[in-house]
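Hey, can you fold this one?
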Amino acid sequence: MTSEPIRDQVTDRLLTPQNAALVVIDYQPSQIQTVTSMDRDLLLDNIVSVARLAKAFDLPIVLSTVNVANGQGHTVPELRAVLFDNPEIDRTQINSWEDLEFRSAVQATGRQKLIMTALWTEVCLTFPALDALREGFEVYPVVDAVGGTSPEAHRAGLERIVQAGAQPIGWVSLACELQRDWARTATVPDVVDIVLTSRLLKTT
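Sure. Predicted structure:
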């Protein structure tokens, strides 16, 4: 039961805490209320878990909202409570990649692997994901933490970016890929709490 030496955390082909960043786009009340591709409460639980994982592994996080000045509302409270110290980059562009502050923030992370989450899948995830891929980033959409205005639209958005090179991932898979080895004890308590205690083993 011997673990191999830890791979180079920057050049590793898989996601690591040192080569990835989390991008969170438009988790606002109006967007969540119009998701029909999955249960909205489950969607909210999943994106909160993704955010908690990013905090546990100290990933750079880029958080963006759209059109707050015109009444679209800020990031939903449950998610904002986790990302309380991450500034919201507000924009008017539907495609966040066309906002200079947003794109600069992504580039400033210094990470080439982008774990991307957004509402809606077919719009606010698809458009910047396609642009990021064209600019040489690797994109990992968290498929069970994003949602669309219909199941068909959600699937079409994911298919479009996967065909362009995106690598889909689920939130539990994300947790295990970042953790990689239970012998890396520093983050084990957080991962166990986020994945098992708070979610998969939770009884109601």
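The chain has one domain: 22-196. Let me know if you want another pass with a different chain boundary.
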